[in-house]
Amino acid sequence: MKRLLAAAAAALLLLAACGSTEDDAAGEPTTVRIGFSAWPGWFPWQVAQEQGLFAKNGVTVDLKYFDSYTDSLTALSTGNLDANSQTLNDTLSSVSGGAQQTIVLVNDNSTGNDQIIAKPGIDSVLELKGKTVAVEQGTVDHYLLLLALQKARLSEKDITVKPLLTDAAAAAFLAGQVDAVGAFAPFTTTALGLAGSKAIATSADFPGAIPDHLVFTADFVKDHPKEVQAMVDTWFETLAWIKANPDAAISIMAKKGGVSDADYKTYDAGTTIFAREQNLAAFESGTTPAHLDYQAKSIAQFLVKAGLVDEEPPLDGLFDPTFVKASSS
Per residue in 243-267, pLDDT tens? Predict the structure, then answer.
């Protein structure tokens, strides 16, 4: 259940072997293989499945849940998925490695559910100097940590990073083995179980820095626009269903996330789900973090500066607002 910055580079070598088959000819109806993992902005797909909203919109979907977010990235890159819900950071990293991917929908922005949580006695990012921080290297929470350190005029050299998977990092923090942890919901709930602990930096401090999207392979978008449109329409219809049936929706999503309904409700403010109007605004070209093209350029520059990619990925054709614009939901 990790939200990593980069898919396995070796997986990209298999891209050339992953073309259409006779059963999946261009323009012919096909099953959409879509992946998602543990993040509040992606659990609405579970609601769509359980309420029959994919079928209602005329699309057959093979919805695959990944315990490991990394595996979902690899599955998309190797052609074992047609689409995946993933961060902009991950998509840029994959594209920089040669993947041909297209963002057709904004699921959400992280507005607090990615957090740097510190033990009692540490009240600011500046006070992390000389301390040990557990974080999964390459994740967006590693990215958040670097942003927070930069804002405090520190660098990664000023702390000791203990690389652990996100669930293990939260558990290590809870056990008192590290001074702080970078984690995302629902693992923030685990970390905050340490008495007196608190978030000293969150994604709310960096608006627009962690957007999450529905990403298709570029070939699938070209060959199966009807299915892509149906997926986008289903997203907006699902949000309407959730709004009309909040308690039932929370129960579905909390169960999938392995947390209580009460805990799931606490994630609401920290993940801003994007309806159609917010999507349209995000896809517009602009010069603020609210605009995807601006944010992509900022993230690309940061990824290079942090040494996470060798060069800035090409952005031409990355964003396709066609399907959001065509949706009437």
Answer: 999 999 999 999 999 999 999 999 9
Candidates 212, 3, 33, 220; CA nearest to 105 is 212
Q: Which residues of 144-175 are buried (b: 16+ CB within 10 A; e: fewer)?
A: bbbbbbeebebeeeebebbebbbbebbbbbbe
C-alpha span between 17 and 22 (Å, rounded)? 14
Tokens of 134: 């557990």
237 and 321 assigned to the same domain: yes
- Kindly report the CA angle at 3 between 206 and 79, in degrees rounded to 5? 130
Q: Are residues 98 and 18 in the same domain?
A: yes
Residues 42 and 65 in one domain: yes
Which residue type sits at 214? L
Q: What is the count of structural domains for the chain?
A: 2
Question: pLDDT (tens digit, 9 = 90+) per residue, 126-157?
Answer: 999 999 999 988 778 998 999 999 999 999 99
State how far the Cα of 290 lies from the Cα of 274, in Å rounded to an integer.
12
Q: Domain boundary at 154, 174, 205, which?
A: 205
Q: Are strands 211-217 and 101-110 parallel, antiparallel or unpaired?
A: antiparallel
User: Per the structure block, which two tokens stand in for 326?
Assistant: 């065509």
In sequence order, what DSSP letters do the residues of 42-65 get, joined into one string? TTHHHHHHHTTHHHHTT--EEEEE
Q: DSSP characters for 242-298? A: HHHSHHHHHHHHHHHHTS-HHHHHTTTTTEEE--HHHHHHHHS--SSTTSHHHHHHH
CB-CB contact of 258 with 266 (8 Å): no
Q: What is the rounded distance in angstroms from the CA atom of residue 114 to the CA atom of residue 285?
A: 26
| CATH code for position 63 | 3.40.190.10
**CA angle 143–258–197, rounded 5-degree value:** 50
Q: Which residue has the tokens 């994007």?
A: 274
Specify the DSSP class assigned to residue 139: B
* Of 72, 70, 210, the residue nearest 145 (C-alpha): 210
